[in-house]
Amino acid sequence: MASMIFTDCSSSTMSRLIHLDRRNGAFLPHPCVGQLSLRTTASGRGCTLSIRSSSSPSAIVINGKAEAKKIRDDIKIEVSRMKESIGVVPGLAVILVGKNEESATYVRNKKKACESVGIKSFEVGLAEDSSEEEVLKYVSGFNDDPSVHGILVQLPLPSHMDEQKILSAVSIEKDVDGFHPLNIGRLAMRGREPLFVPCTPKGCIELLHRYNIEIKGKKAVVIGRSNIVGMPAALLLQREDATVSIIHSRTKNPEEITRQADILISAVGKPNMVRGSWIKPGAVIIDVGIKRVEGRFVGDICYAEACKVASAITPVPGGVGPMTIAMLLVNTLTSAKRIHYFQSSSDLKG
Ligand code: GUN
């Protein structure tokens, strides 16, 4: 991308606008709204907000927080059914190396989410200067531990460690992050099925499904090519029959490419980089970026501007973030079920 934009792009009209929180029906301050009506989708799994504005068009707010709550509620039921039927409690082990504050927050949130649904969590915190062998020793121990069904090594790892070696050491049957080369390789290949799909991109696609947003045949653009989000998101969109372009740091005129996108996923962590003028009218926007700016969380997308152009958009916070954790819980439950040959009772997706 030729230039990175960090400006505050908020509109002065923001304070006049309202947002419908679907969980409790309360109206909250939100920059994205005109007139709202709520409609349940045919599948009953999600609902569509029909929005009309008296002045300018406004996007539907894709409420990841509410969808994640529904998913957690379903998981909680499944976890207790599993415990009652076969006496097995799904377990997730998390390895955190170093004192990266963002990583520590993610790990804390993952642990809290596990507790909320009855998944047992195991946490190992290692010093920044720990050796690779130490991390590998814990990975190996969790691989052999029958009470652990999912293993997550929080990234990034300190620079003296070989990330590939450590991620490759995780048993593919417990690779709930989907980062093992075999799982990623299968994701990239036609006719192959990974045992797990990385949680953030999986959460993005789940949101599109839950809001009945058609992917097949659409032009999708992903900004960012990280192993954690951008690359697997592009692979997933391709598996859903979208025509996919990837924008990265060397892409010339990124806005010309984003303007063609029916679906735009941005995962670069550059606050407000994508302006309203980068967006095709009616596009669906999934904002994975999240950075703290002057005490507020801000995404990659200039939200106030995007709301006037897009047909639907994820907010930051409350969009993709909660879905990432929900997908980690789904993957952990799926793993425990697979290991113990326990049948699914619901339509929870693995
Ligand atoms: N760091 C940022 N996101 C993730 C994730 O989804 N999994 C792991 N293991 N590390 C991360």
Q: How would you explain this protein's 3D organization?
A:
InterPro entries: THF_DH/CycHdrlase, THF_DH/CycHdrlase_cat_dom, THF_DH/CycHdrlase_CS, THF_DH/CycHdrlase_NAD-bd_dom. This is Tetrahydrofolate dehydrogenase/cyclohydrolase catalytic domain. The chain is globular. The chain has ten helices and 15 strands. The strands form five sheets. It has a six-stranded parallel β-sheet. It has 350 residues and is α/β, with parallel strands linked by helices. Among the domains are: 105 residues, Rossmann fold (3-Layer(aba) Sandwich), CATH 3.40.50.10860; 122 residues, 3-Layer(aba) Sandwich (Rossmann fold), CATH 3.40.50. Bound molecules: guanine (GUN). Guanine binds next to strand 8 and helix 6.
Count all strands and give the number: 15
Task: Specify the CATH architecture of the domain at 199-320.
Answer: 3-Layer(aba) Sandwich
Overall geometry comes to globular
Q: CATH H-level name of the domain at 199-320... which superfamily? A: NAD(P)-binding Rossmann-like Domain
Approximately how much beta-strand content do the residues carry?
A: 15-25%
How many helices? Answer: 10
In the CATH scheme, the class of the domain at 199-320 would be: Alpha Beta
N-to-C CA distance: 35 Å
* Mean pLDDT score: 88
Low-confidence stretches: 11-30, 33-54
Biggest β-sheet: count, sense, barrel? 6 strands, parallel
Based on secondary structure, the structural category is: alpha/beta
Which molecules other than protein and nucleic acid are bound?
A: guanine
Query: How helix-rich are the residues, as a percent range?
Result: 25-40%
Q: Which sequence of strands runs across the widest sheet?
A: 5-15-12-11-9-10
The fold-level CATH name of the domain at 199-320 is: Rossmann fold
Oligomer: single chain
What is the radius of gyration?
20 Å
Order of helices and strands: EEEEEHEHEHEHHHEHEHEEEEHEH
Catalytic activity: (6R)-5,10-methenyltetrahydrofolate + H2O = (6R)-10-formyltetrahydrofolate + H(+); (6R)-5,10-methylene-5,6,7,8-tetrahydrofolate + NADP(+) = (6R)-5,10-methenyltetrahydrofolate + NADPH
Keywords: Hydrolase, Multifunctional enzyme, NADP, One-carbon metabolism, Oxidoreductase, Photorespiration
Domain Tetrahydrofolate dehydrogenase/cyclohydrolase catalytic: 62-177
Domain Tetrahydrofolate dehydrogenase/cyclohydrolase NAD(P)-binding: 198-338
